[in-house]
Amino acid sequence: MASKTSAISSEDRLLGKPARGWRRKAFEVIFEADTPAGRRFDLVLLAVIVASVVTVMLDSVSEVGGRYALLFDLLEWGFTLLFTLEYALRIACVERRARYVRSFFGVVDLLAVLPTYLALLFPGLQTLIDIRMLRLLRALRILKLTAYVREYRSLGLALAASRRKILVFIGTVAIVVTLLGTVMYVVEGPANGFTSVPVAVYWAISTMTTVGFGDITPKTDLGRAIASLIMLLGWGILAVPTGIVTAEMTSRRLSETREARSCEECGSSDHSPRAKHCAECGAPLPKA
Question: Least enclosed by CB within 10 Å: which of 60, 75, 79, 158?
Fold first, then answer.
């Protein structure tokens, strides 16, 4: 319960909870899931999201969509109007509206209603309504799965902390596939399907990632040797981002463990998880 209360307080600070009036009541119902009304609202919202996604999926089946086209249109517009009203209420009942609009869920909430309106001009965008599935992430909070919320947040922090390393890695891979693709263009040439440098780079990317569509294949011995080198590089390269994120998560876990085992006597927190006594004053440490 402590973690839940902390999460709610953080959201109150970020979005700005109104001091009084109907906006405060609406905020408690819409953004806080620890009250009976808020929990009922979130569970109903969860059911509506699932129903709307299922509707779009069934509508994409030609046999079903053609037979019940009018019904699916009415359901979709009904869901869209409900989500539009909900989005407007969310904006209306927060103090820091710009912060909510720019937040992850604020963007997802907006994208949940845009495709239906844009489909009037661009019919192909109707299928993008499935982006509403992202709103199901609210279930982690609705169902009070605080352990999953912590893990989700820990993964997000690890990815954010590793973004520079990952960007450097992606940049290096981009340089490697560009160079190898250019070499393959020179070696194989248009006669063997490598009609341009971009096509050769596309082949290098699909080969390095072990996808291998097979639409373009090297025909010369030298080209096959280069392809073999790219395949071997791919094995090692695919593991690098995982190692970066895993190392960051491990580092954070150790840091959190050491911080949690701070000495009650002197306040020192830089302790090994296996340490039983404080390295500064010798006092017993709390268990990990």
Answer: 60
